[in-house]
Sequence to fold (352 residues):
Amino acid sequence: MQNILVTGGCGFIGTNFIFYMLSAADYKGRIINVDKLTYAGNPDNLVAAEKKFKERYIFHQADICDARALVDIFDLYAVDAICNFAAESHVDRSIVKPDAFIKTNIEGTFCLLELARQFQHQLELFHHVSTDEVYGSLGRDGHFTEETPYRPNSPYSASKASSDHLVRAYFKTYGLPVTISNCSNNYGPYQFPEKMVPLIILNALEGKPLPVYGKGLNVRDWLYVIDHCQAIWEIMKAGRRGETYNIGGQCEMANIDLVGRICDLLDEIAPRPDAPPRRELIRFVKDRPGHDMRYAIDFSKLTDELGWMPHESFESGIQKTIHWYLDNQAWVELVKSGAHYQRWMKQQYGGG
Ligand code: NAD
Ligand code: TYD
Fold:
């Protein structure tokens, strides 16, 4: 792989993946980043990469549903691998307005697959980045394995499940070299602040209410984003074609505990001398419809076959993440001043 087309590279995980590939991974080729720049995509994230890795990093603004634009990019850069991050990714937005999820996550993946088929002669791999949410919800016990039946519960997870099925079908039907990864919840730098972890960090820093859905007992398995990026690259290099790999953090936490830990850490790192502990900012709010109770990942296949394990503990990962948000106020202000963000915060939480 010398010319990897990364889609959605201006979003949270895509940005981290591109930095990882250009500066830390054993990869010396080029990255061609194609992103539509929705509200979640921020081209400023990668300005430093553009400067530092001039020969190895190229950005094109394009929609993955736009086959004509993508054909030109394939031709121009002799693309030999695809890593598909591009998606609408926020469950709550998918509940309010699912249209874009169907368009990008299903039709967009289909469009990319068709393109991959057209260029199959030069293509080494189509890697599809997906989520554990396709498996639905767990009770108190058990873990998702690669054999767990798909039972998506939100328009977001249903659209991702649909795209996974298409990718698998293109392997079976056309022999397209594909791999799929299904990962648990990520946190880390560059995450858009409408998602749980950055939302809580930024609200807590400003002394604003911390909204916890329902009773806060829903459990997620948290993984630091760079660990996810490493796992994807290992799968791209050595994963068996046609296979799915689960990726997880071995870090299950109820939402109320996650929020409590962030509050305690912020009280240490950024104390507010005359204010009460930040835990007092927690507010239980109306639950998300169809809210999945618990996600937990069995990633033993990835460990057994490719030797991958997460490196970052939650303690060290969340500290890095908090420091990143503290050190990148300009990024935060730019994102928060956006009309999309402001409209969403008002609609979802009734504030600004
Ligand atoms: P994100 O919302 O932060 O970024 C998505 C990016 O895709 C944005 O830059 C956006 O502009 C771009 N995009 C959207 N529609 C597009 C289109 N039609 N054409 C081209 N680009 C488009 O999402 P993220 O959190 O970085 O997630 C990336 C991928 O990882 C998604 O496929 C998501 O399902 C998957 N995933 C995310 C998590 C998580 O915790 N965030 C966990 C597991 C899997
Ligand atoms: P989120 O970051 O939206 O990820 P996902 O829904 O894909 O798991 O949310 C993580 C968990 O946090 C999820 O159980 C919903 C919950 N949550 C809240 O309790 N309050 C909030 O304001 C948000 C955004 C999420």
User: Anything to note?
Assistant: The chain has a mean pLDDT of 97. The pocket of thymidine-5'-diphosphate (ligand 2) is lined by residues 91, 185, 195-196, 199, 211-213, 218, 220, 255, 288 (CB under 6 Å).
